[in-house]
Design brief:
- The mean pLDDT is 93.
- The longest helix has 12 residues, at 58-69.
- A three-stranded antiparallel beta sheet has the order 2-1-6, with no helix packed on it. It has a three-stranded antiparallel beta sheet with strand order 4-3-5.
- It has two helices and six strands; from the N terminus they run E-E-E-E-H-H-E-E.
- Strand 1 and strand 2 (17-23) form a beta hairpin.
- The protein has helices at residues 52-56, 58-69, and strands spanning 6-11, 17-23, 29-36, 42-49, 73-80, 82-83.
Length: 84
């Protein structure tokens, strides 16, 4: 039997709300990277994960990406998704 499709929402610390869906995927957490570039601009990367452990695992890759791409700084955030 097919899983029920649902909408998921993530509310970040700065008030930004991201809605995902409709999806039947078992996502539980949302992650976001705000990268500060050398020219003063920012880039935003985001994704969703099936567990907190999987989402937090993205941070190690982010640190490597920051070194490779020459970011001056970055913020990495993980929040729990809620069904909306």
């Amino acid at each position: 039997m097919a899983r029920k499709k649902r909408y998921l929402s993530a509310t970040m610390a700065d008030g930004y709300v991201k809605t995902i869906g409709p999806t039947a995927a078992p996502f539980t957490h949302f992650w976001r990277i705000v990268a500060h570039l050398q020219n003063g601009k920012t880039e935003v990367f985001w994704g969703h994960a099936n567990s907190l452990k999987e989402a937090i695992g993205k941070k190690a890759a982010t640190e490597e990406a920051a070194r490779q791409r020459g970011w001056t700084a970055f913020e990495f955030e993980v929040v729990k998704l809620t069904e909306s």
